[in-house]
Specification:
Length: about 190
């Protein structure tokens, strides 16, 4: 583990390779799992604010879930997560004509309709952030639905932390990320990763 300020980073984040391959997975990470995506408390307001912008993109089933329980719920482990449809699909998931999933919030962001990208946990995937009192833990999450991303990352030699530079800066700041890069380069020189 590597510590930068109050954040502990797993060596897997530096060592493992990852590069999303939507052509292969079709965005399966948005529609599989036993709960919605983790949401930070401060993000609930942003999710509610973006609803009128994306409402027409959402399925009738997703709109019904949001009307009944809101944009988030507390899962079995006590975590705030995005509401889900059919016991698996995130309510913000939509599909294109090829059957590929996309996030309605991210689409609106890319079209300049909102300043909210999407929940930071989604932006950070395959990294998951753990909260351990005074420390945050940055861990690499392995999931079978991302096999194609692992293969592509290996082929293109893209470490997880480089693939996720933008969301890591969003979460921890530019100075923190610069320290992470320096530490990774030093560890690489020493053959540690």
């Amino acid at each position: 583990m590597l510590q930068i300020d109050d954040v502990v980073v797993s060596f897997d984040v530096l060592r493992e390779k990852f590069l999303c391959n939507l052509d292969a997975c079709k965005g399966e990470c948005c529609i599989e799992g036993d709960a919605g995506a983790p949401v930070e408390f401060e993000e609930i307001e942003k999710l509610e604010e973006v609803l009128p912008v994306i409402w027409d993109e959402l399925s009738p089933e997703a709109r019904a879930v949001i009307d009944a329980q809101g944009v988030v719920y507390t899962d079995e482990e006590g975590d705030l997560v995005t509401s889900i449809v059919n016991n698996k699909d995130c309510v913000f998931t939509c599909y294109d004509e090829k059957g590929c999933c996309y996030c309605a919030i991210e689409k609106a962001y890319r079209e300049g309709k909102t300043d909210f990208y999407k929940p930071v946990s989604c932006h950070l995937y395959p990294i998951r952030i753990g909260d351990y009192g005074p420390y945050k833990a940055v861990n690499y999450h392995r999931w079978d639905v991302c096999k194609a991303a692992v293969f592509l990352g290996q082929k293109e030699d893209v470490p997880v932390y480089k693939f996720l530079k933008e969301p890591l800066i969003r979460k921890f700041g530019e100075d923190w990320y610069a320290e992470l890069e320096l530490a990774a380069e030093e560890m690489k020189k020493q053959g540690m990763i």
